[in-house]
Amino acid sequence: MIRNRNFVLLWSAQCISAAGDTFSFLALAVRIDSIYSDPGQSAKALGAVLIAYALPVLLLGIFAGTLVDRQDRKVVMVLSDLARALLAPGYLLLRSASDLPLAMGFAFALAAFSVFFYPARTALVPSIVGKDQLMSANGWMQVGQTIARLSGPILAGLVVGRWGSDIAFWIDSASFLMSALLVLGIVGVTTRVFEQKQGAASAWLSLKEGVRFILNSRLLQGITLGIALAMLGIGAINVLFVPFLHDAFGVSPEALGGVQTAQGAGMLLGGLILGGLGKLLKPRTVAIISMVVLALGTVLFGAAPGYTAALLIIPLVGFSLPPLNASLQTLLQSNVPSELLGRAGSVMDMAISLANVVSMGLAGYLGAAIGLRQSFFAGGAFVFLGAVAMALMLPAARTYSDGLVPAVEASQAATAE
Predict the structure, then answer these.
(1) Domains of the chain, start order
(2) What is the C-alpha separation between 172 and 36, in angstroms, rounded?
(3) What is the reported pTM?
(4) Among 46, 358, 365, 393, which is most exposed with the fewest C-beta within 10 angstroms?
């Protein structure tokens, strides 16, 4: 993959912007924790911001996917990066509890442009690499995110600890600008699948086309159900993570950087193995096994007796994430026609986002009702249920090459006439 210039540019753009995101997340968590003295209130406030960040996928996902399939995907990515570069410093306005609605507004706006960026990136990868290299390419993309997780939290912790949280948001903004410049350098590949007639009627037909494909794809239904069940557990854990570190281990919020780094070490190992052996692995098998490992790691982390033990356990969670994400991306890219990738991915993301929003919204109440440790146990159980759902649904899945989308092809023919 290193000899593929366009892939290296896309990979580098992801590394830089993902590292920048760790600055914003750590700075935001620290800032919110400093505003609220009560861990429960802090968890609810962070959950509110995370819910605002998750909502655009639910509200705009299918429309974003339709636009991605109708426009130049490279242009969509660049414009999304530029918009996020302008919005990232908005978190600077969060100074007191009364400013929380502002922070939620900026989180929503940032996520709205991310909703356009990520389906475009997913749809662009098959144009950059061959079909037989998709698993390896997605594995290396996960390695890039891992590098960001390893380097970002360490640097973010040092920066926030020495200069405060304000500069972290400016660094995130700069990372989006650098990502846009790198994506601009991608040349010589198809970034727009085909020309379509513009207009409301054409857009509506494109929207219906994507929905029809989802309704006829058992593969996408299996992936969506499995990940949605997992997110019902993981979403709450994301909100409760910082309060859990403080309550269970007596460490400061800055210790989140150490946990993220340890998790990143596990991700690096998982991503490197996948990047090297991607051609030899079956995406479906990798996805199911990774979900089981993620469930086990989540439960063990919740049961950790101390911070040191937690640092030793969390790499297991990290190890499962690159194979899981890469295998699901490969299943999507291999079994969906290129002209439908944006819409198919967006509809799937909408279902996942709904589960995430519900989970995060209930996180504070869940933690108060059953305890923080028990919330991790419940989260692991939901992840395991997701693995079971995938195992039951994916074996019977048909692929595009097996004639999955005759209705879509008929729709396109009717539109052409």
Answers:
(1) 5-185+200-416 (1.20.1250.20)
(2) 24
(3) 0.69
(4) 365
